[in-house]
Design brief:
about 60 residues; mainly alpha; Cation-transporting P-type ATPase N-terminal domain-containing protein; ATPase_P-typ_cation-transptr_N
């Protein structure tokens, strides 16, 4: 992945870009993807950059 594309994706990952208030084509541009999704090699690159999309479980203390 080229450095420019990587920096743009890191800005998105760091939530610098507000995706809720821009047109869908702008979202695709910011995410560096298309309506068809990502190619396999792009998925691997993004997994290395961002990791898996997992939520952390919080322990709940019940009294």
């Amino acid at each position: 992945m080229d450095e420019k594309k990587s920096l743009a994706l890191e800005a998105v990952g760091g939530e610098v870009v507000n995706m809720e208030n821009i047109p869908i084509e702008g979202v695709f541009e910011n995410l560096k993807c298309t309506r068809e999704g990502l190619r396999s090699n792009e998925v691997k690159e993004r997994l290395q950059l961002f990791g898996y999309n997992k939520l952390e479980e919080k322990k709940v203390c019940v009294i």
